[in-house]
Write a structure and sequence with these properties.
The complex is a heterotrimer.
Chain A: H1 25-62, H2 79-115, H3 118-133, H4 136-160, H5 162-170, H6 186-210, H7 214-222, H8 227-256, H9 259-264, H10 284-291, H11 298-332
Helix pairs in contact in A: 1-11, 2-3, 2-6, 2-8, 3-6, 4-6, 6-8, 7-8, 8-11, 10-11
Chain B: H1 21-38, H2 44-66, H3 69-103, H4 109-113, H5 129-160, H6 163-176, H7 181-195, H8 203-228, H9 231-239, H10 244-272, H11 276-281, H12 300-310, H13 313-343
Helix pairs in contact in B: 1-2, 2-3, 3-13, 5-8, 5-10, 5-12, 7-8, 8-10, 9-10, 10-13, 12-13
Chain C: E1 5-14, E2 17-27, E3 32-36, H1 43-49, E4 60-68, E5 71-72, H2 80-86, E6 87-90, H3 102-106, H4 108-111, H5 119-132, H6 136-139, H7 152-165, E7 170-174, H8 182-195, E8 200-204, H9 208-214, E9 217-223, E10 230-237, H10 238-243, H11 248-254
Parallel strand pairs in C: 3-8, 3-9, 6-7, 7-8
Antiparallel strand pairs in C: 1-2, 1-4, 4-5, 9-10
Helix pairs in contact in C: 5-7, 7-8
The chains are: A mainly alpha, B mainly alpha, C alpha/beta.
């Protein structure tokens, strides 16, 4: 060693790099082990959700149609003819929610990303995020107490205006026919769902719009475009796949939302498009919540089977949404 | 577009003055009120609804006449986008308003500290104490499971994860955030049905249902925070001869702690109002159940739902409980934002 | 306390990609060795192999030998963590820990490793290290302020104090002045000249005047083209390198006719 005249402040001789001494190697192993195990455990949970539901749903899936005769809430139907109207109700309420929420979300996303003053934008974003924090049961209360009376005159008008009346006379019943107050129909439920998925869609859409390359925007403005023309030329094309995936995320949430539908909708088990009539539709999730406490035996299995169908549906929708997002991230170069 | 003639000086377009929308808005609202007087008389909702439509039409037409088609479209877009935002605020404001208005009737210290033992019919006494305790239990159990699991998974994804396993976990965590809450409830129910048997009911089942919903939210937010920690800090620590695990604990987690706290609190706020899974798994009770591992237990969201369904004096309790729930959720959100604002390391971003 | 490093036929790979090829080099104890060369020639990559920091990047590995006073840094069973305690590093951008005070930043190497240290020892170590980094007089009144409250140049000296507080044998500096203004750069260069009395210093720099000013020996790295491995073209005493280099490419690079 070349160091014979170490400064006196050095209390000990410099240690050698020793083979075999491994500071923290055990800690590293343990820590990495715990982390990896946690990641794998999440996969296990997800698999367990599918397996346990499948195990309990199986008796209902394989049972003879007659097995359900004693189950009161199934109205003497077999599993599939019982599930179909529920699937239909789930789909139609979600579609209504998206038809209302997606254009609104795009508008809000644009407002926050391109219209609101920069300094306010983040705060306004928080306001919309607050909507996502409100418990669904309170949305249910609000739907009954506030929204129903509010939309009732509108629904009355939709149902009784001359155009609807003329169509009923000459063509047949329309989707707006036969409104009865209070507004405990699928359209009201869909509106409440729309408010609930709004923050989810807005959050994604807003991010995507904010990612629009400044160069594209400035290129458009430099050509003399108005703000709206710039948005049509630069922002919307760039954000299209983001809007699609956000819509899918919103759909996933709307499909599985329980309380709003349970509280607002007067249930029925039919397949039709009478949006303003009560007692026509019901969603899978709300149906499970309303019948689960009283169910027993094969009835429980049937409800779990419907839950499994809902799980598979939302899983698929979310997977597609994430796939679109991932593909976009790879090809757009935005990240 | 006309064919351009040889060089013209910059064309000056006739524009509406900046203040033009204001009188138009006032006029639209007055006109809307007038229209309603012809019908059943004006309502606030009606005035604003019709007024907004009138404003859009009048503004666009005026702009079309004065400024030309392109500017008219621009103005229409601005109007629509602004109205979309204002429209979204209506549910938020009205919801908070009615919850406060109807909630304060029964909201009191007594409401927070009594349970429903011996309350029946139209009695106005009773409170949500048992439901608050139950919510604390159920959310606590969910947090005990979901927070460590979520944080360690995020650490795996950011610090260790590579290859197909890491990609798979990322995708499935994303997908898991979309699991319907009622499905999580069914899962927890069947889990205990298969393992323990049908008679078992306890806060534990609800806690596990909520943990399934909470874990992916925690993973996502913690992962995001860990990715914000600059790599240079990790390298600085490695260069000092600090092992990787201590670097993660003492540098990475320490730097991201404010963001992680925020993420965790928002995750708690997200699950604390979950109703459907608890409806299936823990049921309702009238008195405080101090045992988290045995017996039905009341929770705030289910209490709201059940009391409202009973109507009458119970409905007032439902609103008061809803107010309690909203206060808890808003406080959690507010504190979470404050934590991230004031405790984030300044030089880290 | 300082050691010499002998590098023998060292290759650095990122997966299948050979980044640096066939480096032979002697780094003398108590000297400043400067590594210069165009961007992407592998000089920083090579520097990182001297304390095995390249292993932070997945799939990066090294063949060949790097021996520090008879100890093979890549010998079987040698833990990279232990190597890094002997071979400290200062980075391109100042990176004090944002959650720690100035004093805690200096003590980071001790505290992060869960080693116990008495209060008076800690106070001593902080003063000694900050004095060694020429920073003590500027910060002695605000040791409990966050490290990020300092200016860029002060932050970089804080990082040097943090590195020497663990009492390493060798100090690696990866373009330590490239993010600093000229005055701060001068302060760091003065500091390097002082540190040389106690440490072996290897510095990567893009600034040839800097290499000429601070170093005793200079190594020139070059790369034949994109996707080709970097090579150590020439290494000699700094004065020789800058007056009469033996390779044409070195002369071209130093005189600015290159890259």
């Amino acid at each position: 060693m070349a160091v014979t005249d170490s400064p006196p402040s050095e209390p000990e001789a410099p240690p050698k790099v020793r083979a075999g001494r491994a500071p923290g190697r055990l800690g590293n192993r343990v820590f990495q082990g715990i982390s990896t195990a946690s990641g794998i455990f999440i996969l296990v949970i997800l698999a367990a959700v599918a397996i346990f539901l499948l195990v309990r749903a199986w008796p209902a899936v394989t049972a003879a149609p007659s097995a359900f005769e004693d189950v009161g809430f199934m109205l003497g139907r077999d599993l599939w003819s019982w599930v179909w109207p529920l699937l239909f109700g789930t789909a139609i309420s979600s579609v209504i929610a998206l038809v209302v929420a997606v254009p609104l979300s795009i508008g809000i996303g644009l407002f926050i990303s391109h219209y609101a003053p920069r300094r306010l934008a983040q705060g306004l974003g928080y306001l919309i995020d607050l909507l996502a924090a409100i418990p669904s049961v309170i949305f249910g209360l609000w739907g009954i107490q506030w929204l129903q009376p509010l939309v009732s005159p509108l629904f009355t008008w939709l149902s009784t205006n001359p155009a609807t009346a003329w169509l009923e006379e000459n063509v047949g019943p329309t989707i707006f026919s036969g409104y009865q107050a209070p507004a405990r129909n699928i359209l009201t439920a869909g509106l409440v769902l729309a408010i609930m998925v709004l923050p989810i869609i807005t959050a994604t859409v807003r991010e995507v719009f904010l990612q629009t390359p400044r160069l594209h925007e400035e290129a458009s403005l430099a050509l003399g475009a108005t703000r709206w023309e710039m948005i049509r030329q630069a922002v919307l094309p760039f954000g299209r796949s983001g809007v699609i995936s956000a819509t899918m995320l919103g759909l996933g949430r709307a499909l599985g939302e329980t309380m709003a539908v349970l509280m607002v909708l007067s249930p029925g088990y039919l397949i039709n498009f009478f949006l303003l009539q009560p007692g026509q539709h019901q969603s899978i999730a709300a149906n499970i919540a309303s019948h689960f406490p009283e169910a027993s035996g094969i009835g429980v299995d049937a409800l779990i089977a419907s839950g499994l169908i809902l799980f598979v549906m939302t899983f698929g929708v979310n997977l597609v949404a994430r796939w679109i997002i991932a593909r976009r991230a790879e090809f757009s170069g935005a990240n | 577009m006309s064919v351009t003639t040889p060089p013209v000086p910059v064309r000056t377009t006739r524009r509406l003055p900046r203040w033009a929308p204001i009188p138009v808005l006032v006029a639209s609202l007055l006109l809307a009120a007038g229209i309603q007087f012809l019908g059943d008389g004006p309502t606030i909702a009606g005035v604003f609804f019709i007024g907004a439509i009138l404003f859009g039409i009048i503004m666009t037409v005026t702009s079309r006449v004065v400024e030309g088609e392109r500017y008219a479209k621009d103005r229409l877009a601005t109007t629509l986008v602004t109205f979309a935002f204002l429209l979204a605020l209506i549910p938020l404001v009205s919801l908070l308003w009615i919850v406060i208005r109807d909630g304060v009737k029964r909201f009191s210290w007594e409401f927070l500290t009594t349970d429903m033992t011996g309350i029946y019919g139209q009695m106005v006494e009773g409170g949500a104490f048992h439901a608050i305790i139950g919510t604390v239990y159920v959310t606590g159990i969910a947090s005990i499971i979901a927070i460590p699991l979520g944080i360690f998974t995020a650490i795996y994804l950011v610090e260790y994860g590579r290859g197909p396993l890491s990609r798979g976990i990322t995708v499935l965590v994303d997908v898991m955030t979309g699991i319907p809450s009622i499905v999580a409830g069914l899962f927890a129910f069947t889990l205990f049905l298969v393992i323990v048997g049908p008679a078992y009911k306890s806060a534990l089942i609800g806690g596990i249902a909520l943990a399934v919903l909470m874990t992916p939210v925690v993973v996502r937010s913690v992962e995001e925070m860990l990715r914000l920690v600059p790599n240079e800090l990790r390298e600085a620590s490695y260069a000092l001869g600090v092992p990787k695990w201590l670097t993660i604990v003492k540098v990475v987690l320490r730097t991201a702690i404010a963001g992680i706290t925020t993420g965790v609190m928002i995750a708690i706020a997200r699950v604390i109002g979950e109703t459907a899974p608890l409806l299936l798994t823990v049921g309702i009770a009238t008195a405080v159940n101090w045992d988290a591992f045995d017996g039905r237990i009341a929770t705030l969201p289910v209490f709201v739902y059940r009391q409202y369904a009973q109507g009458g004096a119970s409905a007032d309790r439902a609103w008061a409980a809803a107010l309690t729930l909203i206060i808890i959720v808003m406080l959690l959100n507010l504190v979470a934002r404050l934590v991230s604002r004031y405790f984030s390391p300044k030089g880290a971003r | 306390m300082s050691k010499r490093i002998d590098v023998n036929d060292l290759n650095v790979y990122y997966g299948d990609f050979l980044a640096v090829e066939g480096v032979n080099m002697v780094i003398e104890a108590r000297s400043v060795t400067a590594l210069i060369g165009p961007s992407g020639c592998g000089k920083s990559t090579f520097l990182r192999t001297l304390n095995r920091m390249h292993e932070v990047i997945p799939k990066a590995y090294v063949t060949g030998k790097a021996v520090m006073d008879g100890q093979d840094l890549y010998g079987p069973g040698v833990d990279p963590v232990e190597v890094r305690r002997q071979v400290g590093m200062v980075f391109q951008r100042p990176n004090p820990f944002p959650t720690m005070s100035i004093a805690d930043n200096v003590l980071a190497g001790v505290r992060l490793n869960n080693r116990r240290i008495s209060r008076s020892d800690a106070t001593d170590l902080v003063e000694r290290s900050l004095t060694g980094a020429n920073l003590w007089n500027e910060v002695k009144d605000r040791l409990d302020r966050p490290g990020s409250s300092l200016s860029g140049g002060q932050q970089q000296r804080l990082c040097i104090a943090r590195a020497i507080a663990v009492e390493p044998q060798v100090l690696l500096m990866d373009e330590p002045c490239s993010a600093l203004d000229p005055i701060s750069t001068l302060a760091i260069e003065d500091l390097i000249a002082e540190l040389k009395n106690n440490y072996t210093i290897v510095i990567v720099t893009h600034n040839m005047q800097q290499a000429a000013r601070v170093s005793d020996r200079t190594g020139f790295f070059n790369i034949a083209g994109t996707g080709k491995p970097g090579h150590l073209i020439e290494m000699d005493d700094t004065t020789t390198m800058f007056s009469t280099p033996s390779v044409k490419a070195t002369e071209d690079y130093i005189s600015g006719r290159f890259g």
